[in-house]
C-alpha cells in the first residue's frame, strides 16, 4: 500500500501541522475539511490493483520516509477510496445531517459494510409491484442499496429519501433534527428485528455489544451483589453534575464512569451476609469491551438555573489509539445470565482499598479530583510518552508503538476511525463527520454532499474548548467510533470487483429501476392536464321506461354537480381519441343515471384556447392526431402539467354548429322553463356575426329541436352588459338586423348571453308549455320570464351551518339561567319577607339569612315586572343594593339586568347533566316565573321543543307539520313577543316569499348551500332561519367565517336589519349561534373558575360567557353566574359561597381583588370587559363570615416548606386594617402577634399570579419580612386596596431555620425552577423508526 507523507520529517508533528505549503484551500463554502493535500498529478495517492489485497497487511500502516505527492498550486486532489473511486456525499433532505454522518460512518466501517453486502434480500413470490413495495419498506435492503451506490455511482452525491422512507418517515420528519446516538440505537434495533432467524441475527451484538456489571460490594465481608448488563455504546460525561471543570480526556471520563460510589452513613447498604447495614461500594465495572466501541460524549445538559438546555463546549481530548486495558475488570467469574442478580463471596472487592471520602474530596458533586482512586491510579494513556497537551489524533498509526502497548498492557487497544461532530448549540446545529479509511489509514471529512481530505489539525479542533477561531468554539466531537486492533479479526473493505454475485445482480436490477424511474420522470414531464366540460341541452324532464315523466328541475343543482368538468392527466403523445373516449365514458355513465339521450355519434370534441372555441375533432382522421397538435406552433411546447381545455359537444338537433366560419361569434344560450320558474344549463354556440337576427334565432332553436314556427313564437332576451338587471327583448322588429351590430350596440365586446323560452316539443312538460304560452301574452316587464331572469341575475350562494340538535338541547338546558329577578329585585324579595337587611359596608359581600322557599311567592309578586319585548329581562331599575347581613342560605334565581339576553350564551365544555339533577330548581325562580306570561317560557317537557328543531331544514318534517306545531301553541326555543303574530295564514304567504328568495342547493345534516336573492334583507333571512329552527329571530346571532368551510372560529356580526344579503355575507360561510344578539353597548365577558391551589392560570377552567355592558351591576353578574353554574353543572350555589375576582395579567396592579357587587363594570376602567374569575368558597373558616379576603401562604424556616394558598378575612372598616389582618393570621397560625413577620408589599412589585417566592431566598433572608407591619405601614386604610390582589407570605420570626446540605439546596432549586419553567417550548416530534416498516424479506 502506497502511503502519502504529510511532511518530510514524520517525527515532528508540529512541522507537519504547520507545513501549510503542502495544502491548498478548495473552492466553495462549508464547515471543516477545507484543506487537502495536492499532488502533481491532481489525484490523491490511493491503493492500486497492484499493491492492494483483499485483506489488510499484517502490519499497521506506517508513515513513509519519502513523499508520494508534491505540492501543486494549480491542481486540486480528488479524494478517492480503496477502489480509486471518488467518494460520494449525501444530500441533506432538510435537517438530516445527523443521518448522513451516521450512514457515512457505518459505510466506512469495513466489518459492517461487508456484512451488509453478505446479506441477501430474498423476495417472496408476489406481484412485481408488491415486491417493489416490500423492498422499499426493507431497511437493510435500502441501506445495502445506498452502500452499493456510494461505492459504485458516478454521481457526486446521493439522496437518502429511499432509506428514510423505509423508516416510515414522512416528508415533515426530515425537518426535525435529532440525536445521532439515538438514531444509531434505533437503526440497530430495526436491523436486529429484520435479521431474526438469519445468520446476521447476532451481527450487531458481535460487533457493538459490550458487557458490564452493576455491583454492590460490602466493605466489611467483601460479599458482592452483581447484575450483568450489556451496552451498545458508552455515554461519558463531559462535565460532572455541579462541577466547575470538565474532564480533560475520555480516559479521565472513563475513570469516573467506573469509579464506585461509597454508601455510608444514612445511606448504608443492608448486607445479607452481615445481617446489618454496612459501608459498601456501588458502581459499574466493564468486563468486556465490544469489537467496535461507540462512545457518546454527553455535551447536552440542562441548566437548572436558567431552566434551559445547554451545550458543554469544554475541551475533551481523545487519541488515535486508546488503551482500555486498565478499565477492564480482571476478575474471572462465571458469566451470569442477562438481568440476573448473583451474589459472590470473597475474594474481596477489587475496590476494597478505596479509602473513605475525606473532607477535601468533592466526590458527591462529581467533579474530577486528583485524589480519586482509579483502576491502577495511573495517568491516562496518551499513545506515547508525550505530555497531556500533545495528544496524537488524525495521524497515521505508529505500528511499533501500538505493538509495544499491546505487549506491555494487553490486547484491549483500540483505533479511532470516526468522529461525529456537532456544530451549534442545544437548540440546533449541524452534524458532520471526520472518518478514517482504515485501509488507507487516511482521514476525510464527510459534510453532507461534500467529501474532502482532513488534516490532523482539523480533527484536533473537534476536541472543543478553543478560545477563538473556528465557529466560536461551538464545534466539537459528539460521538466517537473505535475499532479494536486485532490482526486476525480486522477486515478490509470488499473491493468493487470482488462483490458477491447477488450484489452484482442487485446492482443491475437497481440500475434498471433507476432507468425506469428516469423514463417515468420523462413521461411525467410530457404529461398535460386536460379539462373537459360538457355542452349539452339538458331537458326539464325525461321519460322513464314505464312511460312516466321524471321532473329534473328539482335536481338542477345536483345534475350540474354530477356533470362538472372531467379531469385527466395524459401524455401529449397520446391521440385525441383517448381524451374523447375517456370524457365520453365519464359523462355517458352519468347520463344513463338520469335516463338522458346520449350518443357517441352525436358527440365531438372541441379544443378551447383562451376562452375561444378553436377547432373541433369529429372524424376518425382528426381523432388520430396527437394531443400536441393542438398547440400553436408560434407559442411552442408548453411546460409539464400544462392545462388544456376541451368541450364535449353533444347535440340533440340535426347538425352541429360550424366552428370554422368567417366573422364568427361565440354566444351563451340558456333555456327558460316558465312553468318550473327556472333556467336550464348554459349552452355555448358559435355563429357568424354577419347573420341576421332571425337566422340566429333559428340556429338557437335547432339546438332544442324547434321548428321554424316554434322559433318565431319563442322569446329571445339579451342580458345587457351595462347593468345586471337590464334585459332587452329581441322581438320581431330586430329580425332583420345584423347580429354583430345588435350585440355591439348593447354588449360591446363581451360574450353575449341570450335567454330562450323555446324547446316546447322536447324540453318541457305540457304544464310548462301552457304556462309559457300564457306568459308570452303579457308585457315582458310583467311576465314570469322577466321575474325568473331578474331573480337569476341577483342570485348569490350562501353556505350556512345551522345548530345541531345537541346544541339546541344544550342551549335548552340553560333556559332558566337568564330569567328571574335582578340583584335589586332579589334584595327586595328578602325585604318583603321581613328579613333583616342592614345597609352594607362598602366592601363586604355576605349572605347570612335563611329564607324558606315556600315563603317567597308573595314577595316575588310584589317586585315582578313584565319582560320587555326585546327579550332583555326585567324593566326594574338597577339600584345598588348589597346583601351583607342576610342570614342563611338561599338559592338565587333572577335575570342579569337590562343587558341580559333570554337565550343562553355560548357555554364552554362541561360535564353532561342528568335531567334529574336539574329537577330541584329554585322555588323562588318557579314562583317568579308563574307571575309572568306562561306561554313566554319553555314547555316543561324537554321533548316538546327539541325534537321539532331543524326538522324543516333536515327534511324530517313537512311545512304543514311545522305549521300545525306552531298553530297548536307549542313553544319555541326561547320565544319572545316580537314575532308572536306568526299564524298559519301568514306563514303560507311568508313561505311563498321565502321560496322565491331562498332555494336550497345542497343539504347535508346541518350544512346547507343556499341560492339566495342578494337583494333580500337581513331581517328576512333571519326570519327564514327562525322558520327552520322553530324559534324567534331574536334568539340567535349570525357568525361570519373567513374560511370556505367554516373551520375557523369566525366573528359575530352586527348587521342592520335593512342591510341586503349582498352587503352582509354574499358568497361566504356563515353559522348560527344560539344566543340573543348583543346590543350596541354590549360585549361578551368570559367567566373562569378561580383555583387558588393551581399556579398555572392556563389550567383554570373556563365556565361560560355572559353579555354585559359598562352599566351592568356586578351583583347581577354574580347572580347570573350562580344560575348558569346551576343549569350547566347541576350544582346549586349561594351568594355567600361565590366571589367574583379580578386577576391581573400585568405585573404592576394595586386594586382589590374582590369585585364589589354594588359597583358597575364601569368601575373596572378600560378593561371593564376583561375576564372575571368566579371563586367558589368551600373553607368553613371563612364561609359566611364578614370581611375582605386576603390570600396568604405560610413559610416555615425549620422545614423550608410553604403552605398551600389560603384566605384570611380582614375588616377593612377597622381603625387599622393591617392590625386586623395580623390578628387574623395569628388566629389561623397560632403565631404570637409580636413574632409575626409578613412580606413587605414592595416585594411584589411587577409580580403576577401566583406571586411565588423562592424558599431558598426566604430562608437566606433575601426576601424582606417585616415585623410590626401594622405600625410601619404608611397608609393602613389602603391596605386591602393595595394588597388584596396579591398573595402575602408570613412566618414565625423566631422559628429556627434549617441548615441545608448542598444536595438539599440543589434539590430545592431544581424543584422550584422546574415549577416556573417555560411550558410553552415547541413540542418536538420524537425520533422513530417504524418496526412495521421492517418487512420480512
TrEMBL record:
Q: Name one GO cellular component term.
A: nucleus
Q: What's the short name of a Pfam family annotated to this entry?
A: USP47_C
Tell me the protein family, please. Answer: Belongs to the peptidase C19 family.
Show the ranges annotated as biased composition (Polar residues).
1-13, 36-63, 370-384
Q: Compositional bias (Basic and acidic residues) at which positions?
A: 1301-1312
Group of enzyme by EC? hydrolase
Keywords, alphabetical:
Hydrolase, Protease, Thiol protease, Ubl conjugation pathway
- Region of interest (Disordered), residue spans: 1-68, 330-390, 857-878, 1301-1337
**Reaction equations catalysed:** Thiol-dependent hydrolysis of ester, thioester, amide, peptide and isopeptide bonds formed by the C-terminal Gly of ubiquitin (a 76-residue protein attached to proteins as an intracellular targeting signal)
Any idea which GO molecular function terms this record carries?
cysteine-type deubiquitinase activity
Q: Kindly give the CDD domains that the UniProt entry links to this protein.
A: peptidase_C19C
The USP domain extends over 88-485
List, in alphabetical order, the GO biological process terms annotated in this UniProt record.
protein deubiquitination; proteolysis
This protein's name: Ubiquitin carboxyl-terminal hydrolase 47
Bias category Low complexity: which stretches?
Answer: 338-350
Superkingdom, taxonomy of origin: Eukaryota
Q: What is its EC number?
A: 3.4.19.12
Amino acid at each position: 500500500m502506497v502511503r502519502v507523507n504529510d511532511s518530510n520529517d514524520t517525527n515532528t508533528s508540529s512541522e507537519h501541522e504547520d507545513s501549510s505549503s503542502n495544502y491548498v484551500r478548495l473552492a466553495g463554502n462549508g464547515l471543516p475539511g477545507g484543506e487537502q493535500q495536492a499532488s502533481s498529478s491532481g489525484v490523491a495517492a490511493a491503493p492500486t490493483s497492484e499493491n492492494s489485497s483483499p485483506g489488510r497487511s499484517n502490519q499497521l500502516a506506517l508513515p513513509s520516509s519519502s513523499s508520494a505527492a508534491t505540492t501543486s498550486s494549480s491542481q486540486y486532489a480528488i479524494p478517492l477510496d480503496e477502489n480509486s473511486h471518488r467518494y460520494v456525499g449525501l444530500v441533506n433532505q432538510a435537517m438530516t445531517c445527523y443521518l448522513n454522518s451516521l450512514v457515512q460512518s457505518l459505510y466506512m466501517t469495513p466489518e459492517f459494510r461487508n456484512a451488509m453486502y453478505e446479506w441477501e434480500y430474498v423476495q417472496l413470490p408476489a406481484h412485481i409491484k408488491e415486491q417493489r413495495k416490500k423492498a422499499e419498506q426493507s431497511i437493510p435492503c435500502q441501506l445495502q442499496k445506498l452502500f452499493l451506490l456510494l461505492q459504485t455511482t458516478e454521481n457526486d452525491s446521493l439522496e437518502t429519501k429511499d432509506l428514510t422512507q423505509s423508516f416510515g418517515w414522512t416528508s415533515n420528519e426530515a425537518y426535525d433534527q435529532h440525536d445521532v446516538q439515538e438514531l444509531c440505537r434505533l437503526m440497530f434495533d430495526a436491523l436486529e428485528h429484520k435479521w431474526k432467524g438469519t445468520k446476521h441475527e447476532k451481527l450487531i451484538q458481535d460487533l457493538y455489544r459490550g458487557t458490564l456489571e452493576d455491583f454492590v460490594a460490602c466493605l466489611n465481608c467483601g460479599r458482592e451483589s452483581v447484575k450483568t448488563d450489556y451496552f451498545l455504546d458508552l455515554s461519558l460525561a463531559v462535565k460532572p453534575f455541579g462541577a466547575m471543570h470538565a474532564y480533560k480526556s475520555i480516559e479521565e471520563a472513563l475513570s469516573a464512569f467506573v469509579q464506585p460510589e461509597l454508601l455510608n452513613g444514612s445511606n448504608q447498604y443492608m448486607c445479607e451476609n452481615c445481617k446489618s447495614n454496612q459501608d459498601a461500594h456501588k458502581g459499574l465495572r466493564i468486563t468486556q469491551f465490544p469489537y467496535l466501541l461507540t462512545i457518546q460524549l454527553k455535551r447536552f445538559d440542562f441548566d437548572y438555573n436558567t431552566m434551559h438546555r445547554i451545550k458543554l463546549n469544554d475541551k475533551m481530548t481523545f487519541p488515535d489509539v486508546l488503551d482500555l486495558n486498565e478499565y477492564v475488570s480482571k476478575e474471572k467469574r462465571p458469566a451470569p445470565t442477562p438481568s440476573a442478580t448473583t451474589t459472590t463471596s470473597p475474594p474481596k472487592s477489587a475496590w476494597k482499598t478505596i479509602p473513605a471520602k475525606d473532607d477535601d474530596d468533592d466526590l458527591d458533586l462529581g467533579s474530577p479530583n486528583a485524589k480519586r482512586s482509579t483502576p491502577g491510579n495511573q495517568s491516562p494513556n496518551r499513545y506515547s510518552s508525550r505530555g497531556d497537551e500533545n495528544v496524537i489524533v488524525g495521524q497515521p498509526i505508529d505500528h511499533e508503538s501500538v505493538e509495544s502497548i499491546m505487549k506491555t498492557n494487553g490486547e484491549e487497544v483500540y483505533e479511532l476511525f470516526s468522529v461525529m461532530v456537532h456544530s451549534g448549540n442545544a437548540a440546533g446545529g449541524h452534524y458532520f463527520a471526520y472518518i478514517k479509511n482504515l485501509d488507507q489509514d487516511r482521514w476525510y471529512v464527510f459534510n453532507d454532499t461534500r467529501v474532502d481530505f482532513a488534516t490532523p489539525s482539523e480533527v484536533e479542533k473537534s476536541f472543543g474548548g478553543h478560545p477563538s477561531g473556528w465557529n466560536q468554539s461551538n464545534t466539537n466531537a459528539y460521538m466517537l467510533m473505535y475499532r479494536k486492533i486485532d490482526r486476525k479479526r480486522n477486515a478490509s473493505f470488499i473491493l468493487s470487483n470482488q462483490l458477491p454475485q447477488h450484489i452484482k445482480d442487485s446492482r443491475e436490477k437497481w440500475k434498471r429501476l433507476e432507468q425506469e424511474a428516469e423514463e417515468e420522470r420523462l413521461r411525467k414531464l410530457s404529461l398535460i392536464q386536460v379539462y373537459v366540460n360538457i355542452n349539452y341541452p339538458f331537458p326539464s324532464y325525461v321519460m322513464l321506461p314505464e312511460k312516466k315523466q321524471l321532473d329534473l328541475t328539482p335536481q338542477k343543482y345536483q345534475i350540474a354537480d354530477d356533470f362538472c368538468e372531467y379531469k385527466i392527466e395524459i401524455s401529449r403523445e397520446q391521440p385525441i381519441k383517448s381524451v374523447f373516449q375517456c370524457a365520453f365514458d365519464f359523462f355517458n355513465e352519468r347520463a344513463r343515471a338520469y335516463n338522458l339521450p346520449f350518443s357517441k355519434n352525436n358527440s365531438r370534441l372541441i379544443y378551447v384556447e383562451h376562452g375561444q372555441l378553436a377547432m373541433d375533432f369529429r372524424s376518425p382522421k382528426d381523432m388520430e392526431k396527437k394531443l400536441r397538435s393542438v398547440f400553436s406552433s408560434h407559442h411552442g411546447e408548453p411546460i409539464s402539467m400544462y392545462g388544456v381545455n376541451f368541450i364535449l359537444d353533444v347535440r340533440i338537433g340535426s347538425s352541429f354548429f360550424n366552428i370554422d366560419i368567417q366573422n364568427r361569434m361565440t354566444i351563451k344560450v340558456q333555456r327558460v322553463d316558465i312553468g318550473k320558474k327556472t333556467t336550464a344549463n348554459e349552452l355555448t354556440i358559435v355563429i357568424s356575426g354577419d347573420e341576421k337576427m332571425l337566422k340566429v334565432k333559428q340556429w338557437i332553436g335547432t339546438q332544442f329541436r324547434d321548428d321554424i314556427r316554434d322559433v318565431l313564437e319563442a322569446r329571445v332576451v339579451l342580458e345587457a352588459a351595462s347593468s345586471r338587471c337590464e334585459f332587452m327583448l329581441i322581438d320581431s322588429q330586430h329580425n332583420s338586423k345584423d347580429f354583430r351590430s345588435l350585440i355591439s350596440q348593447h354588449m360591446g365586446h363581451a360574450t353575449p348571453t341570450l335567454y330562450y323560452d323555446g324547446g316546447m316539443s322536447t324540453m318541457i312538460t305540457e304544464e310548462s308549455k301552457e304556462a309559457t304560452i300564457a306568459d308570452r301574452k303579457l308585457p315582458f316587464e310583467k311576465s314570469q320570464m322577466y321575474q325568473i331572469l331578474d331573480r337569476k341575475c341577483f342570485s348569490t350562494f350562501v353556505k350556512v351551518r345551522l345548530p345541531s340538535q345537541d346544541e339546541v338541547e344544550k342551549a335548552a338546558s340553560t333556559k332558566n339561567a337568564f330569567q328571574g329577578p335582578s340583584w335589586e329585585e332579589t334584595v327586595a324579595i328578602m325585604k318583603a319577607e321581613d328579613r333583616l337587611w342592614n345597609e352594607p359596608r362598602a366592601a363586604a359581600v355576605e349572605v347570612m339569612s335563611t329564607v324558606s322557599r315556600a315563603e317567597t311567592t308573595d314577595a316575588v309578586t310584589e317586585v315582578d315586572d313584565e319582560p320587555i319585548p326585546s327579550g332583555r329581562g326585567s324593566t326594574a331599575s338597577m339600584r345598588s343594593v348589597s346583601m351583607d347581613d342576610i342570614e342563611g342560605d338561599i338559592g338565587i334565581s333572577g335575570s342579569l339586568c337590562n343587558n341580559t339576553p333570554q337565550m343562553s350564551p355560548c357555554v364552554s365544555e362541561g360535564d353532561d347533566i342528568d335531567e334529574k339533577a336539574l329537577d330541584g330548581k329554585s322555588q323562588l325562580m318557579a314562583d317568579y316565573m308563574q307571575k309572568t306570561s306562561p306561554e313566554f317560557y319553555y314547555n316543561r317537557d324537554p321533548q316538546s321543543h327539541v325534537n321539532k328543531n331543524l326538522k324543516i331544514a333536515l327534511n324530517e318534517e313537512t311545512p304543514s307539520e311545522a305549521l300545525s306545531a306552531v298553530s297548536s301553541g307549542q313553544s319555541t326555543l326561547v320565544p319572545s313577543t316580537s314575532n308572536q303574530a306568526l299564524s298559519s295564514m301568514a306563514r303560507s304567504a311568508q313561505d311563498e316569499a321565502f321560496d322565491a328568495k331562498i332555494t336550497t342547493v345542497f343539504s347535508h345534516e346541518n350544512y346547507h348551500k343556499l341560492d339566495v336573492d342578494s337583494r333580500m334583507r337581513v331581517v328576512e333571512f333571519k326570519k327564514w332561519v327562525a322558520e327552520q329552527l322553530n324559534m324567534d329571530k331574536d334568539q340567535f346571532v349570525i357568525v361570519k367565517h373567513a374560511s370556505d368551510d367554516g373551520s375557523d372560529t369566525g366573528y359575530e356580526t352586527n348587521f342592520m336589519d335593512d342591510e341586503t344579503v349582498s352587503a352582509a355575507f354574499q358568497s361566504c360561510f356563515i353559522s348560527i349561534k344560539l344566543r340573543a344578539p348583543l346590543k350596541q353597548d354590549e360585549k361578551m365577558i368570559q367567566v373562569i373558575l378561580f383555583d387558588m391551589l393551581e399556579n398555572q392560570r392556563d389550567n383554570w377552567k373556563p365556565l361560560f360567557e355572559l353579555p354585559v355592558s359598562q352599566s351592568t351591576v356586578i351583583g347581577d353578574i354574580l347572580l347570573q353566574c350562580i344560575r348558569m353554574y346551576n343549569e350547566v353543572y347541576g350544582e346549586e350555589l349561594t351568594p355567600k359561597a361565590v366571589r367574583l375576582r379580578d386577576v391581573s395579567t400585568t405585573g404592576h396592579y394595586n386594586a382589590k381583588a374582590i369585585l364589589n357587587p354594588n359597583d358597575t363594570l364601569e368601575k373596572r376602567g378600560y378593561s371593564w370587559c376583561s375576564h372575571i374569575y368566579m371563586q367558589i368558597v368551600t373553607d368553613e373558616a371563612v364561609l359566611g363570615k364578614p370581611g375582605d379576603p386576603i390570600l396568604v401562604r405560610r413559610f416555615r424556616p425549620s422545614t423550608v416548606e410553604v403552605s398551600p394558598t389560603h384566605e384570611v378575612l380582614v375588616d377593612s372598616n377597622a381603625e387599622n386594617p393591617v392590625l386586623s389582618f395580623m390578628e387574623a393570621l395569628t388566629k389561623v397560625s397560632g403565631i404570637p402577634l409580636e413574632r409575626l413577620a409578613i412580606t413587605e408589599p414592595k416585594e411584589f412589585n411587577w409580580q403576577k399570579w401566583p406571586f411565588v417566592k423562592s424558599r431558598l431566598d426566604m430562608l437566606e433572608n433575601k426576601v424582606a419580612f417585616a415585623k410590626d407591619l401594622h405600625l410601619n405601614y404608611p397608609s393602613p386604610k389602603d391596605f386591602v386596596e393595595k394588597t388584596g390582589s396579591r398573595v402575602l407570605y408570613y412566618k414565625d420570626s423566631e422559628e429556627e431555620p434549617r441548615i441545608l446540605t448542598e444536595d438539599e439546596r440543589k434539590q430545592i432549586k431544581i424543584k422550584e425552577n422546574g415549577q416556573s419553567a417555560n411550558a410553552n417550548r415547541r413540542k418536538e416530534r420524537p425520533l422513530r423508526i417504524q418496526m412495521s416498516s421492517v418487512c420480512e424479506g
